[in-house]
User: Fold this.
Amino acid sequence: MYPISAAPVRLYGRALSRLFFPEICPLCGICLRTWEYQVCGSCEALLSELREPLCLSCADELPAFSGLSLCGHCSRSRHDIDRVWSLFTYNDAFKKIIHRVKFCGKPALLRVFESRLDDFLRGTDWPSFDAIVPVPMDRLKLWTRGFNQSYLLSLMAGKTLQLTVNRDLLKKKFTDAPQSALAKDKRLSNVAGTFKVTDPEWAQNRDILLVDDIYTTGATVNECAKVLKQAGAASVCAFALARVGRNNS
Ligand SMILES: [Zn+2]
Ligand SMILES: [Zn+2]
Assistant:
């Protein structure tokens, strides 16, 4: 992403290529400089990370100096998911990038997040996990989109954390309405019963890290955790690349 970390040969190649085929930042439309990749530095700087203190259960931002370790929601209710980690706030810059990834067929844009994701994963004190499991998409959506961004993120996380990615442990049945199109109170019922553990024997006593792109209400990862625990998993945590604040969900 920056000159100091990029391989010189790759930079020269990119400089030469951009002389003939200039690339523009898809978010603001300016020409990318040689050391910029996929989006310009100004747009990348608009990606904002969650600010501590965070809820130790769901990673929602807590008021500064409150002394709280759990948000009001988590202190009132129990979840099937044991703990959630997240990196970015779901702001306009993140939304624009992830929308282009998912709805404009640009999976390579996920690399915009790569170096900060890598830093975050290396700097986090993780419990021990047996495997990463991406939150699955139903077959129709996967066929339409051509890739599951949660699986691609799982591969990036698996490489950094040196964990295997069990892509097929969870399957999702077709649902009429995507979660993103539903109001908060409808999301829970929309995902109920939609996930299935394909290999319950493997899931026995496993510690699993689910990976998803966005955490909104937690309905999806909680439903995944529920079926994995019913199948015998010992613990199920989740990492979401970005988190929607509970006040905004
Ligand atoms: Zn830009
Ligand atoms: Zn919470």
The mean pLDDT is 89. The CA atoms of residues 25 and 39 lie 5 Å apart.
